[in-house]
Amino acid sequence: MNTERLARSAALPKPPRRLPPFILFAAFLSTFYIGLIGPILPALVEQYGGNAFTIGLLFSSYSFAQFLSAPSLGAISDRYGRRVVMLVSLCSAILGFSMFAIGGALWVLFVGWMIVGVSECWIGTAFSYVADTTKPSDRTRYFAFLTAAIGSGFIIGPATSGFVSRISPVAPLYVLIALLVFAAIWGHFSMPESLLPAQRSTELPLSHLNPLTQARDILQFPQLRLLLLSYLLFWMIVILPSSSLPSLLFDRLNWTPEQISPLLVTFGIIVVLVQLVVLPVLLRGFQEIRLAIVGGLTAGFGFFLIGLFPVTGALQLLYGGMVIYSLGQPLVQTCLTGAMSKSISADILSVTIVVRLLCRTSWLIACSVWGWTTSICTILPESIPMYRLRRQLARSET
């Protein structure tokens, strides 16, 4: 870790700037594309001979690409500023999603998805921008605004996918590409640089490009270890609603993107309401760690109910579990991020890098496991008469 730069950063005052709308829009796009792709991905993969496990591998390759690239993007951001990293990331995403939309074969989907994974750093840059321009005491409140923007992507993304996919399964991808082009142009003309020249790194050492080195350096702070471990474990399940759950519904109940979208929209609406309405009130009277614990228990119970759905086939458990999980997920994500940013005097970007590394490690493991278990879940229940009847009814209705 560049301790000299951290010392300079701590000595300099933060520039008094408001949070630009573009930063909120970039945070929104970071989940909008996940919410948009989730409902249509099973149909896209199936036309090239893929299945639920293929979707798991897609997300795993995406996470692996991010695991490798996160330190490089962070080091470049420290050296040249947040603005250049954000704009290059948006342009690279345009290329990756264009390949994803054109398709033609599974390997094209993998290449396009990995290009997005290598370059996508919108969330990390947005959180770093907040850290550059706010006081530590105000960061959790601004993090809540960012997380609300992130959660809104889970509302508009699935809704857009369900509506536009009536034209074609790939039509939502072209909507996404148009928004990315708009974001790149908007950011070029409106995004100010938040990292002052005196606060930037004077060099770009090769050690900063190694993800394991970054993790080792940040883990030298004992107050962060349990927080990061909690984040690692929690993100093992965060990927489920976007990656494996649509595949499960597509394979088990023959749901279309129009049917999958409302479930994900419900998730996004609750997350945003918790971020904008509930969390600011709770932060006035409770510590972040306590809220994170309550959120984790709530989200865990929600996933317990979701886990009963493949066995029982009861949609009430699926929707009830998603609602309960949606109440707990934003508490954990926002409060743990805020607690980590307050527990260390270092620049928040260093914490963000390691958090992203842990998230992508979790996704790398979880996506493969969820994809494999989803494939198993589509086979085992065929022996249950009640499930066979439900599936036949679902197919007859569609």
Description:
The chain is globular. With 398 residues, the chain is an all-alpha fold. Residues 1-17, 345-350 and 374-395 have low confidence and may be disordered. The relative contact order is 0.17. 79% of the residues lie in helices and 0% in strands. The chain has a single domain, classed as Growth Hormone, Chain: A, CATH 1.20.1250.20.
Q: Which value, in Å, is the CA radius of gyration?
A: 21 Å
Elements, N to C (H/E): HHHHHHHHHHHHHHHH
First-to-last CA distance: 56 Å
| Gross geometry | globular
Report the sheet with the most strands, covering strand number, pairing sense and barrel closure.
none
**The CATH H-level homologous superfamily:** MFS general substrate transporter like domains
Percent in strands: under 5%
Provide a compact summary of the structure.
The chain is an all-alpha fold. The protein has helices at residues 3-11, 21-46, 52-80, 82-102, 106-119, 122-133, 139-164, 171-190, 211-218, 222-238, 244-252, 257-285, 288-312, 315-342, 348-377, 385-397.
Detail the topology: elements first, then pairings:
Layout: H1 3-11, H2 21-46, H3 52-80, H4 82-102, H5 106-119, H6 122-133, H7 139-164, H8 171-190, H9 211-218, H10 222-238, H11 244-252, H12 257-285, H13 288-312, H14 315-342, H15 348-377, H16 385-397
